Amino acid sequence: MDIVSDPAVMQRAALEARRLGRRIALVPTMGNLHEGHLALIREARRRADLLAVSIFVNPTQFGPNEDLGRYPRTPEADLAACRREGVDWVFTPSAESMYGIQAAVWVEVEGLGKKLCGRSRPIHFRGVATVVLKLFNVCQPHVAVFGWKDAQQFLLLRRMVEGLNVPVEMVGVETVREPDGLALSSRNRYLAPEERKQAVELSRALREAQAAAESGRATTGAELVEIVRKRIERVASARIDYVEAVSMRDLEPIGAIEPGATLLALAAFFGTTRLIDNARL
Hints:
Number of strands: 9
Distance between the termini: 40 Å
Order of helices and strands: EHEHEHEHHHEHEHHHEEE
Strand order of the largest sheet: 1-4-3-2-5-6
Structural class: alpha/beta
Oligomer: single chain
Shape: globular
Number of helices: 10
CATH architecture of the largest domain: 3-Layer(aba) Sandwich
Helix content: 25-40%
CATH superfamily of the largest domain: HUPs
């Protein structure tokens, strides 16, 4: 396994591999790898000859009052996990090497980046789209693997790839959950014990709404939202940021449920910790 921190060195290695006809897969991460990340790595491993994992806590996707400074960083454990999973390259750039003295070029996906999480995190998706396009240019993947847990992010990046004619196959992997249903997230470690106990209500609320849709008891987006809100509001420490039922085409709120094209997404705070989750119907 090669650990590469210089973008120019990484790009040269990837371009040479492509010249030799090797197929490259990329899994972009911010480190603190857990089983959710490992599921992405294993899917990527199946799809390519060479596997690159980037570990980069991207400063441009954090707002001024967010958790950039305390975001969990576990470099030794991350490298050990990558070795176990047969990763070929681990790309670990610095912010300076990725952005230079001052970031001056941005990628924005109009519309999708300003909805759902984009309302409370207005610069987040600009930073995400910019860094992912940079990672694509540096690592030269044929295929990139992301998690559906960050559904808005995946849909936005897929739109970016389509809109800019980026020759990368985009693959989404289902959300990996704890045994009780809580979606795996690096931010789960911020939760106090009682908050962690209550946070599982997010996935339970989504499952309840999904069951209502499947049985025909709920037929509209508004009914799905009401089911989820009522369940979460029973948890005293939860503060809802949003619950929305939207079309996966444009993230606009739906009237009637569109089978196969509806995203039921939420974000909620437990104490100061903001968690997201979703279900696709």
